[in-house]
Amino acid sequence: MSGSGEMMSSGRSRRRSETLTFLFLTVFLAPILAVAIVGGYGFANWMYQIFAGPPGS
To answer: Which helix (H) or strand (E) holds 33?
Structure first.
C-alpha cells in the first residue's frame, strides 16, 4: 500500500511542476520573446531604411 501513496505524491509533484512550468512560459517567456522579436524586426527595418532610404525614394 505504501507504493500507492508514493505514486500519488509523485503525480501531484509532477502536476505542480508542469503547472509552474506552464505559468512561467505563458507569463514570462512568451511576452519577453514577443517583445524581443517585434523589437528586433523594427530595429532591423529601421537600420535598413537608414542605409537604403525610405520606401518609395
So the answer is: helix 30-52
